[in-house]
Amino acid sequence: MAVQAEVRYLNDEWRDRIDVPQIGDRASRRANTSKHTVTIHDARPGLERGELGLDSSCFTLLKFTSAVQDFQDDAQVRAVYYPEIIGLAKRVTGAAAVFITQHVARTEDTEDFNKAYARFLHCDYSLNDPHAAARRVLARQGVNPADYDGADFAWYNTWQPFDNRAIKNPLALVDAASLAPRDIVEYQYTGYARASDSAIVATQDKSSIPLRNPAHRFYYVSAMAPDEVLFFSQLDTRKRGWACPHTSFENPSAPADAPPRRSIEMRLLAVFPNNA
């Protein structure tokens, strides 16, 4: 069912500014974003009818059971979950190669801003100059970017609950088909470095963040189970501007005794060589 809930958008003052907002803690989030009440639809019916999907709306839902026993065990995630997700991504997209750039396990613990629920709409990458961004990712992975000259690239996220169904604080997604290029601007996430350290911040890749547009259509997947995965696009050189902003939100329909949401997200670069 659809719910009415608050999401945080970037403040409209940033729409035509040349400088870039920085968000990396609760204070900077509150300073640069504002809450707006939106309607968030349950995606399950549209996904089942084929009205929503990776090629049309930028997201899809997959059935997938992992062999990981403890998603908060970093070593186990890297040893078991990484190859599982790489295989899943190749099957879903047809990519020739997939590189995992980061994972984050989130729980009800709010002590670490980087691992707490992400409570503002954002994309994880800049939409500008994606080929240069891909070359930087490949170099960090120890891969020679020249090996993929002429290739296309797509960045995807996976998002999967663990331990419990995701009833409280589920993930909301903006349907990419409702997103206009003017709705997205760059921002810099500074949570992994001190915002005051300009030398560190300047070396970090920028990300993207949406401004408010009433035309945006929001979806979530009701009561996502631990054997379900959201697979969604963040950037694609084959489809300019193709992105899926997302955020955690407080579900007003969640029972008071619902267990806390725990989830793991993976960020991936998929490579599509041009064999023409």
Question: Brief overview, please?
Answer:
By secondary structure, this protein is of the alpha+beta class.
Taken together, the total number of domains comes to 1
Largest sheet: 5 strands, mixed
Strand ordering within the main sheet: 1-3-10-7-12
- Fraction of residues in H or I helices: 10-25%
Q: What is the subunit organization of this protein?
A: single chain
Question: How many helical stretches?
Answer: 5
Shape: globular
Let me know the number of strands: 13
Structural class: alpha+beta
Mean pLDDT: 92
Work out the strand percent.
25-35%
Q: Spell the H/E element sequence.
A: EEHEHEHEHEEEHEEEEE
Detail the poorly predicted runs.
198-203
Distance between the termini: 45 Å
Gyration radius, rounded: 18 Å
